[in-house]
Specification:
Helices cover 17% and strands 39% of the residues. By secondary structure, the protein is an alpha+beta fold. The chain folds into two domains: 6-151, Roll (2,3-Dihydroxybiphenyl 1,2-Dioxygenase, domain 1), CATH 3.10.180.10; 158-274, Roll (2,3-Dihydroxybiphenyl 1,2-Dioxygenase, domain 1), CATH 3.10.180. The strands form two sheets. The protein has an eight-stranded mixed sheet with strand order 2-3-4-1-5-8-7-6. An eight-stranded mixed sheet has the order 10-11-12-9-13-16-15-14, sandwiched between helices. A hairpin with an 8-residue loop joins strand 15 and strand 16 (269-274). It is globular, with a radius of gyration of 18 Å.
C-alpha cells in the first residue's frame, strides 16, 4: 500500500446517539444531520478539511449492525483513504494481512431539498487481528456529499485531526500490524516501548498503558478490559481562544492547549491545540 492518509475516526455510541450528538454539539462541533446507512447503522459527522469524526450507533427502536455491539463505547474505528477498496484488499491479502471482503453501502443526504445518495466501499482488516477495534480503508464514490464547506465551520474552530494516542498492552505487536498493512517505513520506534504510525502528517502514537495513564491521568477513557484502546483524539483549532470560550466550564488548560476529559466526551479524551503554520 501507499503511505497511509487518514480519512476519519469512528466513535461508537451504541444506542445512545441522541445523547452523543447533543454532547458533541455542546462541545462546539457542527454535526451533520442524522445519516441512515443501508447497513442498518446511523451516524452524525463532524467534517473537517480533509478528515472527519463520525459518531456511529443504532436506533434503539430499530437496532441494526449487531456486530457493533461487541465494541465498547468510545473511539474504536481508525479509517484510511483509498482510491480502490478492492485493490487495497488484494494488496493486503498479498502481504499476509487478514482482511475481509470489500463491501459497498450508502446513506441518503439532503441538499437544498433534493435527495442524494452518499456512496462508499470499504475493506476491513479482520477485527480479530485489531486489538483496539476496527481498522479499515474507505473509498468515497461521492466525496462531494461529505466534504462540504457549509459543514466545516465549527464553533470551537476545529479544522483537522492532529493526532491520536492508542494505549496497547503490546505496542510492538500493534505496530507490526500497521507495518504489514502500510509498509515498514511508515512505523517508527519513538522510545520507551512506544511506536508511531505516520499518516499524512497525523501522528498515531502507540504507547504502553502506563504511559497513556501518566499523560492523561483522570481524563483518560475507561478501557473496559480491552488489550488496546484509542485513548485520545488530538484536534487542531484555528483559534484556541475561540475554543476556550465555547468549552468554558468543560475543558481544562494543558501545556499549549485545552483538554476535555473522556467522561465528558463519550469515552475518549479530546485535546485541542492551535493551528501552527
Amino acid at each position: 500500500m501507499t503511505a497511509p492518509v487518514l480519512d476519519h475516526v469512528v466513535l461508537d455510541v451504541h444506542d445512545r446517539m441522541d445523547a452523543a450528538v447533543q454532547t458533541y454539539q455542546r462541545l462546539g462541533f457542527h454535526m451533520t444531520e442524522r445519516g441512515f446507512h443501508t447497513l442498518g447503522s446511523i451516524n452524525h459527522l463532524a467534517i473537517f478539511a480533509t478528515d472527519y469524526l463520525e459518531l456511529l450507533g443504532w436506533d434503539p427502536a430499530k437496532p441494526g449492525r449487531a456486530e457493533l455491539a461487541g465494541f465498547a463505547p468510545g473511539l474504536n474505528g481508525l479509517v484510511f483513504k483509498t482510491d480502490s477498496a478492492d485493490a487495497t484488499q488484494a494488496t493486503m491479502q498479498a502481504a499476509g494481512v487478514p482482511v475481509q471482503a470489500a463491501q459497498s453501502f450508502s446513506r441518503p443526504v439532503r441538499l437544498g431539498g433534493a435527495a442524494h445518495d452518499a456512496k462508499f466501499r470499504t475493506t476491513h482488516v479482520d477485527p480479530a487481528a485489531v486489538p483496539f477495534g476496527r481498522l479499515y480503508v474507505c473509498q468515497h464514490d461521492t466525496p462531494e456529499l461529505v466534504w462540504r464547506t457549509e459543514w466545516q465551520d465549527h464553533p470551537n474552530g476545529v479544522r483537522a485531526i492532529a493526532g491520536l494516542l492508542i494505549a496497547a498492552e503490546d505496542p510492538g505487536g500493534l505496530a507490526g500490524l500497521f507495518a504489514r498493512v502500510f509498509g515498514t517505513d511508515t512505523v517508527s520506534d519513538i522510545g520507551g516501548g512506544a511506536h508511531r504510525l505516520g499518516a499524512s502528517g497525523v501522528p498515531i502514537d502507540i504507547v504502553p498503558p502506563a504511559r497513556a495513564t501518566a499523560e492523561l491521568g483522570a481524563d483518560a477513557p475507561e478501557p473496559r478490559g480491552r488489550p488496546a484502546w484509542m485513548a485520545a483524539l488530538r484536534l487542531r483549532t484555528a483559534s484556541l481562544a475561540r475554543a476556550a470560550q465555547v468549552l468554558s466550564g468543560t475543558a481544562r488548560r494543558t501545556d499549549g492547549g485545552l483538554r476535555i476529559p473522556a467522561a465528558a466526551a463519550c469515552n475518549v479524551t479530546l485535546d485541542f491545540a492551535e493551528r501552527t503554520g
